[in-house]
Amino acid sequence: MRKITLINVDDSIGNFGIRKIASFIRQNGYRVDQIFLVSNDTTTFKYRFQATFGAEIDEGVKNQILEMVKGSVCVGMSCMTNHHRRAGLLSRAIKEKYPEKKVVLGGAHATIVQEDAIEDFDAVCVGEGEKAFLEYLQRLEMNQNVSTVKNFIVKVGDKIIKNSNRPLLSNKELEEMPFMDYGLKDNYIQEGSKIIKFSEEHQYKYSGPHYRVMYSLGCPFRCTYCSNNIMFKIDKNYSKLRRPSVDYFIQGLLNIKKTYPDITTFFLTDDAFFSLSTKEIQYFAEQFRNKIGLNLKITGAIPTSITEEKIHVLIGAGLKHVRMGIQSGNPRTLDLYGRKISPPRMIKAMDTLSKFKKYLIPTECDIILDNPFETSDDLKETILFLDKLPRPYFLNTFSLEYLPKTSLTKKAIDEKYVESDSRNDLLCKFPKGTFPNLLISLYGVFKMPSFVIKYLVNSKIMNSDMQFTALIKMLKFFNFSKRAFYFSLHGDFYFLTPKYCKMLNRLHYLGRKAIKKL
Ligand code: SF4
Questions:
Q1: Is Flavoprotein given among the entry's keywords (predicted)?
Q2: ipTM of the complex
Q3: Which domain does 411 fall in, by range?
Q4: pLDDT tens across 415-470, in order?
Q5: Most buried of 5, 234, 364, 468, CB within 10 angstroms?
Q6: For atom 1 of ligand 1, which residue has the closest CA?
Q7: Exposure letters 221-260 (e unless 16+ CB within 10 A, then b)
Q8: How many folded domains does the chain comprise?
Q9: Which ligand 1 atom is at minimum distance from the Cα of 337?
Q10: Whose CA is nearest to atom 6 of ligand 1?
């Protein structure tokens, strides 16, 4: 059987794009070996506090990959921007050993920077790759011209040929696709200096009892710092929500549940799940409750899409946790980010969620720090906004990164706040140790009396150069501990090692069953 190798270079087992391509290519008669490179132990405290994304690749792993790709017609890699240097390094090693073998880069980074990514590869696949990659492989096999495949940017001698893109998959086409690959067969993973068979234990080790899935594709927003800002320029239809039917999706979840019987939670990572209509969410909730019966965690909640009705039906289906983008509490910065959401609307969304606090783990709110465009008055407004934001919540604080080619990055370069984008040092940087960052981080742990906050934001220390890095780190640790505490109250022990996590999850399940019987 014709063989290809797909390598996920991100430190993750949850890359949906490459898993979808693996399924589709297998369905079309190829043997696909899929390798997940996980060089950091993503479960450690250290990783949670300061992830590093270098350009290194373990020698043992590299040599083993070189052996594994020997019989492959083509090698495909996928990565986000923070791992592109590692993908380039691996591609160079493969090309050095097998100059005739074609190596293709796809995924988020390739789509964002396009021809800029081609240096180390024979071709770059832009956007949705299922059909494009299959056509590329078929042409390769038949010795046909691969330089005209749509969605592909191809190196031909000294020239780089860029083709137009095919339309995005319609809802009907998404439904005709095989389910994303979630299985164990022909899948491999890095463990230290070796590549070994992917097992159920790896799923648990890197994702705990949560299984990450995505139902809808696309986002109606195009925030100026986000990759969707670029996607929209590639194809306006990225702003539309596309998805297969709920029934199709639920069948996929049933298969996953059968393969990984110890998972307790499906983690919906859609960009904008709550933007689906109430009717569709109701039907989804009904099917999920009746056929799946596990917990639900939903990320990507856009405040304007949160309604009481949607939360109510989802709680009935097992919703336990929501993650929402706040990003800032002042209108000027929200405008800079292209987020058409007013602070009062965000307060309303949190007010809705807090009405269900008896059933939900506190909402996780994302907030962006270290934005050089913000003045101390802007930060003061954000701090006073957090003071009014209905609790309970956790705060995920991020230092602003300059993703290549976004409008915000261009503006920051033009106005000389940064020299270049962060493609070579995207590090999930720890927030700076400034006093406003300290006050914001405090809200992730507890609420100080409002009169104290009002006094502090008007004091001189707001503009001082004093650094509070150690305190901010400590608060991040408390924020994490508080989060772990609330999750464990809901019987979710994701933060423990797989062995204890499984044990306690089972005990919690049996305890609940016994209580129900009484
Ligand atoms: S709402 Fe979220 S996913 Fe959508 S564009 Fe903004 S940051 Fe990106």
A1: no
A2: 0.99
A3: 208-498
A4: 999 998 877 776 666 789 999 999 999 999 989 899 999 999 999 999 999 999 99
A5: 5
A6: 221
A7: bbbbbbbbbbbbeebeebeebbbbebebbbebbeebbeeb
A8: 2
A9: 6
A10: 223
